[in-house]
Amino acid sequence: MWNNIRADVFRWYGKYSLLLFVKAFLSQKGFRFVLLMRLAKHGRKIPVLNLFFILFYKVSKVIYTSDVNYRATIGPGLRMHHVFGTTWGEHVRIGRNATIVHNVTIAGKNGEWPVIGDNVYLGTGCCILGGINIGNNVVVGANAVVTKDVPDNAIVAGIPAKVVSEKGSADFVFNPWSE
Predict the structure, then answer these.
(1) 42, 81, 91, 102: which one is catalytic?
(2) 50 belongs to a structural domain
(3) Could you tell me which residues come within 8 angstroms of residue 119 by beta carbon, excluding any fewer than 6 positions away?
């Protein structure tokens, strides 16, 4: 868990220190939300703290009007902007260095859930639906609706989403965590 939190701070500032951790906590609502999500998931080992972490996480979900399940599998270096309106279930898997902005929906269908690769940027209002795979280094454009697998290094846009470029996410994912 602590490695994931260090990676999350690194994604905001390109380096890690305790001072930057405090700065991120005080100034970045997305970082606060992700931190509380990680604490709620990994705090189960200490029962009293777990209740505390889950309570704070549930309050943050109300404040940020988000329905993100803390049980989802999230890799290190998650950078969430704005948080508002974002939702995903407990069976979603997201790789390392994901960047997610507001109003993103990641939803299952028929008991199958999306698997999202590393270094992925999910644009405002996009929807990723069903048991699909989003490759590594992918950009999902604003308001795109993704219902089919997306290959590595693709940029997809539209309803339904189609590959519009193969330049990948290098221009969208800042300070990737590589440890």
Answers:
(1) 102
(2) yes
(3) 95, 96, 97, 98, 136, 137, 138, 168, 169, 173, 176
